[in-house]
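To close the chapter, one final illustration. This time we ask the reader to focus less on the individual chains and more on the assembly as a whole: which components sit near each other, and how the overall shape emerges from the parts.
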Amino acid sequence: MMRGLTIFFLLISNVVWAQQNNTVEPYKNDAFIELLGNGGYASVNFERMVYHFKRYSVGISGGLSTFKLKDFEREFNPDVIAPFGARLYYGGFHHKIFAGVGQTLTSISKLNVETFNPQRVYHLSANFMLGYRYDFKRMLLQIAYTPIWSNYKQYYHWVGLAVGFKF
Amino acid sequence: MKKTTLLLAFVSATIFISACKKKDATLASETANGKVLALGHGGMGNSNFYPMNTYEAILNCINLGANGSEMDVQMTKDSVLVLYHDDGLETLTDGSGPIINYTWNELQQYHYIVGPYVQYDIACIDVLFEHIDNLQQHTFSFDNKLLFDDTWRPVFMRAIIRLLEKYQMEQHVFIESHDPAFLTAFKLLKDYEYFFNPPDFDTGLHQAKDNNIYGIIMDNENISADQISLAHQNGIHVQTWGPASEEDNKQAIAKNPDAIQTDNVNALVDLLSQ
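The assembled structure is written out below.
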């Protein structure tokens, strides 16, 4: 697994080096929809680039996701999953690799065994990112390994696939 | 006068036609008992966000209007009846080993793990029954998982008897098993409504008739409308399980069983209420 990842990133690094002539990043913001990823099953996210130096840039992002909108009593009571974090990008305009860390705040509706009523349970989880991003014109595509340390108890190997728009 | 007569004739004809249509629509719902019971499969079925056999899954199923639910029943080593499907905790939870290795207190430290950020408690039937409003208006089908040594069987039966007596649910719970010996042994203790889960219809019908068992339960795909009709002619009730899509549920209803354990509670409840 680790060997495969190492080879993948070495190959990507070569592609990135080949893009040295074009490192200007004209857009500071992007919004993307991620399938799986740190939001769980799907999330909408916003990211702002806050630092740029030569081939490096840093972005901070926040997202929003849900698992279900109604609780077991059929009342509107949505789960809220809000991943946020920071990413370090390395590469040219088109090809970038990135690594990131963050936290996910969750507010999940579940049953309170004492009262048998729905209650909201709040947790923080850690999330990580290691991926590749391809930018073209104002669009972006990215694929990443996005493991989640759920509630700081359970570790999930997870991946994310995102498509977005820069502005 | 003539106009009034014509109007009355028109209204009568309309009511008659509507009644005929309604009769056609509900024909499929008429069984040996006069209706099909809509039961969830472990609550909300096997592909719902809530894992099967959790408190949330069972309550959601009931709140959607189902008559009740099938549930997978196992026993802890201190004789507490809990809901769990698999042989070991490791497949669905953060625990490991069979339920019978744990006391109820020990078991409560483990949770269903269904994906990042969410986890659910293992359900105890006593706790569940204590909190369901109008409990006796619902029907539950206990799929008994006999995942322990045979010497535990009398203890397991007594635990079920105690539970059903405590909540006066004797007439509202079906007792299922793959093992006819378990059902016949249980039947010597209590005259509940037992359902045999056979490998095929012919075996099921013969075992049910020979042992005077209340009914059989089969995968909806492995039993035909004719076979269900034959079972009814022999005084044997029939439950089916497994329909997931709306079309599957329509076909399941058309076969005319006494109860359907569905993986799509919404669809079955909607179809039966039409």
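The CA atoms of residues 110 and 118 of chain A lie 5 Å apart. The beta strands of chain A are 29-36, 42-53, 56-64, 80-91, 95-111, 118-136, 139-145, 148-150, 154-156, 159-166. With these observations in hand, you are ready for the problems at the end of the chapter.
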